[in-house]
């Protein structure tokens, strides 16, 4: 293989599906060499990743070994989120992570305390989004990667990937909605920063009811009264403005990025 070309695997992990894409990148281009999707037997709506990990292990064992690295993209079912108020006294990333662990524990109890934490970068004075991933899940992912002789390039929560991918489209005050089949996640924005985040498990396709409750409980106190609010939707969900609180908010369905596997787009993942 040319030194200018590299192969890697991107693995999308959700409670009911594992999707593996083997890609080759070089000279600013990336091409998909192979794509495999595996349904998870006895899929669960819980945060328990064991069935997903077993399916991932089998999928990696059946994949070619020419790839050198892997990126894990995690469904929001496997991630816990919170928004951090600005604190003047915090300077280093380690201080922000300690603050995030405290807030995750306060919100989720012991499960939130036993998380590896990532805090998004934001300007002085603005709130920051924090994501927590179970340490045991991260350890299992590293073990499976090592067994397959792959270097772990990154482990990325779905909401963070969606917000980053559509950062130029999601501007102003409103709510970014990420609709997975098993979960609905909402990230609230003011004009210049995040306001709050909420993620709920959804069963039986009850996304509209879940969204109605989310909007009824959302914090609008930091949004200027004259700001035009909007809903941005990512996910294969036919969400017409029928939920309570949606009627007055413009809804924009975000386009599927070029090259994203259809199996991922259909599951609200990027």
What is this structure, in a nutshell?
The chain is an alpha/beta fold and 270 residues long. The protein has seven helices and 13 strands. The strands form three sheets. It has a five-stranded mixed β-sheet with strand order 3-2-1-4-8. The chain has a five-stranded mixed β-sheet with strand order 11-10-9-12-13, sandwiched between helices. The protein has a three-stranded antiparallel β-sheet with strand order 5-7-6.
Features:
270 residues, alpha/beta, 5-stranded mixed sheet, globular
Helix content: 25-40%
Structural class: alpha/beta
Reading the helices and strands in chain order gives EEEHEEHHEEHEHEEEHEEH
Chain oligomer state: single chain
Could you explain the architecture of this structure?
The protein is globular and about 50 Å long. The chain has helices at residues 50-61, 93-108, 110-113, 135-147, 158-165, 207-217, 262-265; strands at residues 6-13, 17-26, 29-39, 69-74, 80-84, 115-119, 128-134, 151-157, 173-180, 183-189, 194-201, 229-234, 251-253. A five-stranded mixed sheet has the order 3-2-1-4-8. The mean pLDDT is 85. It is built from seven helices and 13 strands. It is of the alpha/beta class. α1 packs parallel to α4.
């Amino acid at each position: 293989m040319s030194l200018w070309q590299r192969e890697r695997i991107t693995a999308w992990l959700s409670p009911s599906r594992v999707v593996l894409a083997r890609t080759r990148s070089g000279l600013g281009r990336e091409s998909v060499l192979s794509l495999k999707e595996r349904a998870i037997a006895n899929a669960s709506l819980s945060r328990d990743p064991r069935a997903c990990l077993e399916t991932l292990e089998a999928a990696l064992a059946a994949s070619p070994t020419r790839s050198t690295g892997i990126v894990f993209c995690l469904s929001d079912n496997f991630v816990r989120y919170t928004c951090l108020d600005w604190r003047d006294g915090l300077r280093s990333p380690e201080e922000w992570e300690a603050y995030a662990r405290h807030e995750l524990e306060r919100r989720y109890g012991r499960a939130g305390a036993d998380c590896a934490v990532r805090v998004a970068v934001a300007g002085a004075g603005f709130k920051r989004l924090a994501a927590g991933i179970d340490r045991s899940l991260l350890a299992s992912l590293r073990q499976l990667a090592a067994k397959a002789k792959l270097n772990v390039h990154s482990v990325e929560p779905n909401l963070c990937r969606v917000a980053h991918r559509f950062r130029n489209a999601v501007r102003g005050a409103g709510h970014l909605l990420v609709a997975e089949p098993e979960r609905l996640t909402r990230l609230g924005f003011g004009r210049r920063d995040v306001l709050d985040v909420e993620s709920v498990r959804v069963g039986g396709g009850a996304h509209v009811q879940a969204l109605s409750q989310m909007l009824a409980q959302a914090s609008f106190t930091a949004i200027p009264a004259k700001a035009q609010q909007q809903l941005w939707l990512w996910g294969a969900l036919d969400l017409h403005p029928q939920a309570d609180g949606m009627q007055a908010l413009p809804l924009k369905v975000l386009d599927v990025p070029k090259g994203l596997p259809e199996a991922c787009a259909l599951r609200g993942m990027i």
